[in-house]
Amino acid sequence: MSDRTTDSTATPIVKMEKLNKNFGSLHVLKDVDLSVTPGEVVVIIGASGSGKSTLIRCINGLEEFQSGALEVDGRRLEPDGRASKALQQIRTEVGMVFQQFNLFPHLTVRDNVTLAPRKVRNASTAEARETADRLLDRVGIANQAEKYPSQLSGGQQQRVALARALAMEPRLMLFDEPTSALDPEMIGEVLDAMRELAREGMTMVIVTHEMTFAREVADRVIYIHQGEIVEEGAPEQVFDNPQHERTQSFLSRVL
Ligand code: ADP
Ligand code: MG
């Protein structure tokens, strides 16, 4: 986007080379290369079952992989999930928002947001609370802090999940279909919060089916088919002039 800058000469935050991932005999990711530079917004599109979630989950070590190289913020993740120290570091530096909001149901909204900073970062209660209230205000739900997740709408819950991830001051944010579980009227408020985050320069990798949003927010769009990146480029290029026949047929179905 025009008012953000990405520094393509900077060290990549994600550097994935020839990554292969199997679930048993199912070869889910095939020689995937993915580099994400600081400040960049990368949107991943593709059909259901193509490996989008698996790819994004590999980035923060939620999935092991069989071969290839992966570095996240300069820390190397080993194929079989070894190097747990790097893994712990990465998990504190990478925020993730899932399709299902995964909030802690027994905690208030505010406590959902303060929990990790207090436990993992040893933030004081007052400090964590101040950060939480600032972030809840930023995503437009300051007045819901005392409520429990079940008392909120889906769109509000997803914004709490976003605030919770941001409370750890992540270097990278991953989103896996963050609006797919929402009623249509709530999608906009979550996309707005994500747009704002992108505008502020957050590095983001986003799996979404919201193509209008993708076109607007992405610096780069990646189309994945059966575990392979078959096409990537600027949004105008991928959406308006897709080169690969697979991309063309996918887009003709979803646009
Ligand atoms: P997408 O997010 O693009 O819909 P996924 O990454 O969820 O795709 O899945 C890619 C493939 O891997 C699918 O065939 C799916 O069934 C399979 N898969 C995903 N997770 C698992 C798992 N935990 N165990 C076995 N197979 C899985
Ligand atoms: Mg998925």
Automatic annotation (TrEMBL):
SMART domains: AAA
Molecular function GO terms recorded: ATP binding
Cross-referenced Pfam families: ABC_tran
Domain ABC transporter: 14-251
InterPro entries: AAA+_ATPase (IPR003593), ABC_ATPase_HisP-typ (IPR030679), ABC_transporter-like_ATP-bd (IPR003439), ABC_transporter-like_CS (IPR017871), MetN_ABC_transporter-like (IPR050086), P-loop_NTPase (IPR027417)
Transmembrane segments: none
Coiled-coil stretches noted in the UniProt entry, renumbered to this chain: none
Alphabetized UniProt keyword annotations: ATP-binding, Nucleotide-binding, Transport
Annotated family: Belongs to the ABC transporter superfamily.
Protein name: Amino acid ABC transporter ATP-binding protein
Species of the source: Tropicimonas omnivorans
